[in-house]
Design a protein that fits this description.
alpha/beta, Rossmann fold, Arc Repressor Mutant, subunit A, 3 domains, eight-stranded mixed sheet, six-stranded mixed sheet, 16 strands, about 20% strand
Amino acid sequence: MKNKGRVCTVLAFRASETVNNRRHFDGVFRYARSHGWHVQAFEYFRSESDPLYWRDPDSGVQTGLKELVDFWKPDGCIVDCGSIERPLPRDAFGRIPVVYLDWYSKTVHSRTGGIESDGCLIADAAARELLTLGFRDYAFVPALRNYPWSTARGKEFVRAIRLNRKEVHVFDCDGAKDVPVVEWRDSLQAWLAEMPKPCGVFAANDFIGKTVLDICRAAKIDVPSDVAVVGVDDDPQICENTVPTLTSIRQDYESGGYSACAMLADMIANPRAKPHQLLYGVECVTKRASSCVCEDKRVLKAIEFIRRHACERINLDDVADEMGCSRRLATRVFRQSQGRSILDGIHEERLKRVKALLKNPNQELKSLPDFCGYRSLVDLQRVFKARTGETLGEFRRHAQ
């Protein structure tokens, strides 16, 4: 947003450097680029002695928030709350419009907006993913503490499972705030051991999903045949390093960051605009081994191999070698199990990577094949057009 020829200055605060915060800020900076904003980003934390302190991640220097706002005189501010319970206080910003990202507060302030994830959409995505397995029993494991977002996901998951006439169980963590983690884990382990099998488990986030997988591995509970698991956040550091790898729901964090800027722009342009809150949804479900039930273990190996290596110019022979069978047999058993060809699976994974890269305006088209497994730009353009109905340029314009 440009204000009468003057560059709009926005201060953006994030509570921590996590994959979710980075995705939020991808949306913030995308909006800033397209609207001529200057965004000054900071990392902050809450101090026991002074709740207004923020910390520069490079120098470690601490400064009062009010002094910082007085120095920059911003047109507006964005506060990414992350996982903290008490974000930067609204009063510190005076009359400056502020939008909070992922602040689950029911208190409405003037000149304040809120963007948060839609727990119903997240839970519904998890339910759909798990219900396709055809199990009779399903379960929800909430976060360690009774966070509002965890409670919302659990309630909607229970509703969705019951709607489909299936049994649903919820791990009771009332008072978990005061329970030692070791004791909480022991209780969860006992609960999982007694759970009817097979069972589809929806974990409140990836950390909880990893904990469930670790417990299953130690207890020799087969995943996903006995317990299938779906997490939330699609954090690759967690999901790609569990055994087996963790299926996870990726929230549309970038859209959330972009929407926060759009809301702030409206508040800057319309000082009398009423405070309100918006929700952002789900980007995709990244299916990994923890929810991929298949009787033929060769197919499971192929699915994981394709997901991990599709962008490394693998071919049908490479997948057949991974499956330990002939090319002809690999093709047949994969199609019988998945309803598509091995080549379809390879292209699907490659095009996911292409679409992600196209969202970056600095990504040159000519270098895309090097990152996505195609031999030339011509090959990529042909496959992309055939499978999406759009050219690379058309998709990029729509994605910006």
